[in-house]
């Protein structure tokens, strides 16, 4: 029971991070029907940006108060990663609208390779150990129980929840969110009624990247180490989460993220750590083959 | 008078506009570079990170962005005047003729290549050219042609092609080390096993199209690699399989031992013999792939592949069995991947899961895409350009010395940048020439005369 509870806590923490990345996949797929293969590497890049900004703030400027530092890291990471994502969309994806169907996917694969190599060249191939933060531990259930809750897990879940709340408001209540949903339903019609489609798509990429940037900072915080190759696996897992929840559905992405996090953690705890990535890939394949619309997604209707 | 002043002010406005745009590009570059290039975090021996600054790199990149953006604006303003509206290039008959001529010339060149280098450079110098360039490039030509069946002809984007390469390599390695079978028996077996896997993995993905298909094949490729890593008792895990039996010349050893190839023919032993033999082996395998593909394209099955690529629903309504059509494409592509894999194993003598990562799949896909999907000769040229380019990057010693002397960067290694350039090449290619180097396709069936068509008319990756 203790082990179960402990794994539940770990799974939710990990799932929050996957959920944040998955939103980027699902929004972009919803709006332009493209698998943004480079999203995982944008996430990895954002983890590096977070690390560098953190080091800059603590070592060069000498900021001592950790919560403030971390908030600044988050904000800086969101802004800088958004700039990256905006540029990528502008240079690598926008010119391809109207090209043949697989062109954006191939371009995104190229971008993904570019980004991971860019970080490898500019920051070196070795692991970067991050100084530990939010180390305190709460024991749950008093004496006799062996369930711990780390401060950093609380930080991760709380930040994710706040961010998702804000994001939900943005999509449901603001003009931008309305434009986004309009583009998702019918891009041509949206442009006829005066929605700036190109700008809306750019904004979608920027929002996705900003959420991935938070995920990147939280990932750095949680694992305490970043590496240039960290984009691929979390990226695929988050994409799996998006597919599992139903691609195109925002609550689905969060739900899928939590499920993937829980599955990964429980699989490692009760079956085998070696095959945990196989589990993720298998879920991806099985979902796409047997229920491509996921849990909350709408079935795709094929027009002839 | 007023007209002239208006002209001048107009030109000024354009220049200011360009300048402002270029400045914006430089500012954007600064933001992109800000932490990731300006700062470099490295861990010392105790595991503590420390920062180093690289302001000059940022300044140089911003300057490049400024100048580059300005140049692009100036250039595009000039070329916009005489820009032709035709988007679909109409290939001329003379170009098609040249194309055929180049293909024939290429075949002759490939067959005389090893002896030409041997004659020009001697045994010592030729080794590198035959092995690093010749054999290495030809492996990728073969993989590219194999994947071209799946992606270029049948229009099924396969991101897990390396899985079949791995199946072929491990089949040979395991069959040869466990049962002691010779390479010539293992080669077709490896191909068939890979084809079987192609069908096994192809079967569940029949219903999927486009992006979903790509992602599922990626997942399958990764699953196979992860199993090879984790099933240690079967595949040796990370350590891989070493001491795989080397290739023999129809039973004659090509190594330095009594009774070998050199003894039999009464010539002096040289390590170049085995390289030349491997070269001709992979050349023949690659041509086999090409030959089979070209012949199959004219058969009903090949025409069904291409029809499937153009429109799956139309195919189904015409009574084409899309299941079998897709499966044969997968199986045949996998078969050639398997042959290439077992060649890889016999050439290296050692294999491990490291050689079969997603990057490898992406490289082969890039070759097919850059060459122009569906174009055999384009794929061959793309393989030569990409793989040859990687090898050349590795040898740019003068560049290393230049960087060390002029910029004071001691450990500059051009080969580091190959992934960077490679990813960039894929993006640039998609933006500017989505149909690849070779933008014309010759149809496999025609009414009166063979006429090459523009690649823009071919609908890739629809199914």
What does this structure look like?
- The complex is a heterodimer of chains A (304) and B (463).
- With 304 residues, chain A is mainly alpha-helical.
- Chain A has one domain (2-125, 147-290): ABC transporter involved in vitamin B12 uptake, BtuC, CATH 1.10.3470.
- Helices cover 72% and strands 4% of the residues of chain A.
- Chain A is built from eleven helices and four strands, in the order ααααβββααααβααα.
- Chain A has helices at residues 2-32, 39-61, 66-93, 103-123, 151-173, 175-185, 187-192, 197-223, 232-245, 250-270, 276-290, and strands at 128-129, 137-140, 147-150, 225-226.
- In chain A, a hairpin with a 6-residue loop joins strand 2 and strand 3 (147-150).
- The radius of gyration of chain A is 19 Å and the shape is globular.
- Chain A starts with a helix and ends in a 14-residue tail after the last helix.
- In chain B, 68% of the residues lie in helices and 4% in strands.
- In chain B, the strands form three sheets. Chain B has a two-stranded antiparallel ribbon with strand order 1-2.
- Chain B starts with a helix and ends in a 9-residue tail after the last strand.
- Chain B has two domains: 11-79, no CATH class; 102-245 and 271-395 and 433-457, no CATH class.
- Chain B has 463 residues and is mostly helical.
- Chains A and B meet through helix 2, helix 3, helix 4, strand 1 and helix 9 of A and helix 1, strand 1, strand 2, helix 6 and helix 13 of B.
